[in-house]
Specification:
The protein has about 400 residues and is of the alpha/beta class. It has a domain at about 5-125 and about 245-270: Peroxisomal Thiolase, Chain A, domain 1, CATH 3.40.47. The chain has 13 helices and 10 strands. It has helices at about 30-45, 70-75, 95-105, 140-145, 150-160, 165-185, 210-215, 225-230, 260-265, 290-300, 315-325, 340-345, 350-365, and strands spanning about 5-10, 15, 50-55, 85, 110-120, 245-255, 270-280, 310, 370-375, 380-389. β3, α2 (about 70-75) and β4 form a beta-alpha-beta unit. α5 runs parallel beside α11 (about 315-325) and α10 crosses α11 (about 315-325). The mean pLDDT is about 95.
Length: about 400
């Protein structure tokens, strides 16, 4: 079986996902098209050689409807012969796009493929794909979970309660995320990834001077009297400050086989070593990163000690802190350049954003192995191990 390698990875800066945000005026098709265009320009690959483009987007409605990846491919000026598809595995959509792309290369179905994703949360608000009164779950789910499922914020609170995570610890983690991201920007550690757009060069959500004291003044974001009655164990410690913000952004990476890269004169940066995807309790919902990490290590024949750097998506601070407790990973190896709490979390784009961030950090630090994992709505998680070349 052939291997699959990453040739390059790019992303836009992450804008605040609200009217007036830095990228609000950019249509999501153009946002995604921008990174596709810059990716082929940087690598010098003829777009006509791309066998497929696999993109992630979560709210596939309105301006992100009808296979937005296909329209981005055409808006980027690729030949009409280049196909594209858009997938939804919630927050892990573009990480799953990488898995599908790499598996296609390894099987021989593809030689050159692009994986990426986009989410314009200011123009296509979260949950806009569920019209008022619509039931996306159906009677079968109501029968299996008669007490009802809960929003992700409540899941984050349940995780904090189950793992006895203090509000102070979550706020400290969030503050560190901002400080690490600000330092990474100041030292140019994102320069190899970020392709400016419309004059925007920096991630808009990073707050360099935030402190635990500032964060401690924020009110719980998801307090609900009905949920408080149902879950008396919740202490209501999840806030906007220790959660990921709402953002606009796009990201993409070029994946080939080693043989194809050599034929085209490309220098691969990393090998896509191993993959895993798991299901988990849809009530807790965000804990899948724990079994996904265990599974991908098992698939790879590696141990936690073999991994030099980790990227664990900071959907909520409680998710990463629970993962740290369960795995015993060294916190100093986790999200070394900050995470989604600071950098932002444009849902469909986050998977390849994290992977590009991990890849750059591995090269900067001379790391051999890096592991990425992301929790996903509905109780799932992806995990990927990269090997630096």
């Amino acid at each position: 079986m052939r291997d699959a390698v990453i040739v390059d990875a790019v992303r836009t800066p992450m804008g605040k996902g609200k009217p007036g945000g830095a990228l609000h005026d950019v249509h999501p098709v153009n946002l995604f098209a921008h990174v596709l265009d810059r990716l082929v320009r940087r690598t010098g690959v003829d777009p006509a050689l791309v066998d497929d483009v696999i993109g992630g987007a979560v709210d596939q409605v309105g301006e992100q409807a009808q296979n937005t990846t296909r329209w981005a491919v055409l808006a980027a000026g690729f030949p009409e012969t280049v196909p594209a598809t858009t997938i939804d595995r919630q927050c892990g959509s573009s990480q799953q796009a990488v898995h599908f792309a790499a598996q296609g290369v390894m099987s021989g179905a593809y030689d050159v493929v692009i994986a990426g994703g986009v989410e314009s949360m200011s123009r296509v608000p979260m949950w806009s794909n569920v019209p008022p009164g619509a039931d996306p779950f159906g009677p079968g789910i109501a029968e299996r979970y008669p007490e009802g499922l809960v929003p992700q914020g409540i899941s984050a609170e349940l995780i904090a309660a189950k793992w006895s995570l203090r509000r102070e610890a979550m706020d400290e983690f969030a503050a560190q995320s901002h400080h690490k991201a600000a330092l990474a920007h100041a030292q140019g550690r994102f320069a190899s990834q970020v392709v400016p757009i419309n004059g925007v060069t920096m991630d808009e959500s990073v707050r360099p001077f935030t402190t635990v004291d500032v964060l401690s003044g924020l009110k719980p974001a998801f307090h609900d009297p009905a949920m408080a009655s149902r879950f008396p164990q919740i202490e209501w410690s999840v806030t906007a400050g220790n959660s990921s913000p709402i953002n606009d952004g796009a990201s993409a990476m070029l994946i080939t086989s080693s043989e194809t890269a050599a034929k085209l004169g490309l220098r691969p940066r990393a090998r896509l070593h191993s993959f895993a995807v798991t299901g988990s309790d849809p009530l807790l919902m965000l804990t899948g990163v724990i079994p996904a990490t265990e599974r991908v290590l098992r698939n790879a024949g590696l141990t936690l000690a073999d991994i030099d750097l980790f990227e664990v998506n900071e959907a909520f601070a409680s998710v990463v802190l629970a993962w740290l407790q369960e795995t015993g990973a060294d916190p100093a190896k986790v999200n070394v350049n900050g995470g989604a709490i600071a950098l932002g979390h444009p849902l469909g784009a986050s998977g390849t954003r994290l992977m590009g961030t991990l890849l750059a950090a591995m090269q900067q630090r001379g790391a051999r192995y890096g592991l990425q994992t992301m929790c996903e709505g509905g109780g799932q998680a992806n995990a990927t191990i990269l090997e630096l070349l």
